[in-house]
């Protein structure tokens, strides 16, 4: 073995400290926030049409957006339609759909069709046995 291990360790620590100070100066700076900057624009609410079709009529169903129920039915029909107002950004929207069926029903499906303010149709389906609990995304 050549050289002193103590001298090599000391040299390594000197190099780490020499490189650490500039790195600390670059990452340790604070950024001032401009209080006069305008706030981000408020989300725009849009009127959309929701159509729901079930293969088996459920006992109850709910559609929620951002944690808030926008459509609830306790005795729904097999096919329904409703206009709702919700925040619909360019990135799209996610709806949480839950439906409860009877215990004796087999696999059931729900088709959710969304017609946005521009008139474009978007469609998603969910399947379940006894209940449906899922999220559908529309862009």
The average pLDDT score comes to: 87
Biggest pleated sheet: 4 strands, antiparallel
CA radius of gyration is 28 Å
Q: What's the total helix number? A: 1
**Unreliable runs, pLDDT <50, ≥5 residues?**
none
Level-2 CATH architecture of the domain at 45-138: Sandwich
- Beta-strand residue fraction: over 45%
SSE succession: HEEEEEEEE
What strand line-up does the widest sheet have?
Answer: 4-1-6-7
Molecular structure report:
This protein is of the alpha+beta class and 139 residues long. It has a domain at 45-138: Lipoxygenase-1 (Sandwich). It has 1 helix and 8 strands. The strands form 2 sheets. A 4-stranded antiparallel beta sheet has the order 4-1-6-7, with no helix packed on it. It has a 4-stranded antiparallel beta sheet with strand order 3-2-5-8, with no helix packed on it. Strand 6 and strand 7 form a beta hairpin. The longest helix has 23 residues, at 5-27. The radius of gyration is 28 Å and the shape is elongated. The protein starts with a helix and ends with a strand. 10% of the residues are buried. The mean pLDDT is 87.
Task: Please give the structural blueprint.
Elements: H1 5-27, E1 45-54, E2 60-65, E3 68-73, E4 79-87, E5 93-100, E6 107-115, E7 121-129, E8 131-138
Antiparallel strand pairs: 1-4, 1-6, 2-3, 2-5, 5-8, 6-7
Briefly summarize what is shown.
The protein is an alpha+beta fold and 139 residues long.
Main features:
139 residues, alpha+beta, Lipoxygenase-1, four-stranded antiparallel sheet, 1 helix, 17% helix
């Amino acid at each position: 073995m050549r050289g002193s291990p103590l001298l090599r360790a000391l040299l390594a620590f000197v190099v780490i400290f020499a490189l650490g100070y500039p790195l600390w100066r670059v990452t340790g700076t604070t950024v001032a926030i401009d209080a006069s900057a305008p706030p981000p624009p408020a989300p725009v609410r849009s009127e959309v049409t929701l159509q729901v079709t079930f293969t088996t009529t459920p006992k109850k169903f709910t559609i929620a957006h951002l944690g808030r129920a926008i459509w609830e039915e306790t005795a729904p029909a097999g096919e329904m339609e409703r206009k709702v107002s919700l925040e619909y950004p360019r990135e799209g929207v996610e709806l949480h759909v839950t439906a409860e069926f009877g215990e004796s029903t087999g696999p059931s499906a729900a088709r959710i069709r969304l017609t946005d303010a521009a008139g474009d149709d978007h469609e998603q389906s969910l399947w379940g046995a006894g209940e449906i609990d899922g999220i559908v995304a529309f862009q």
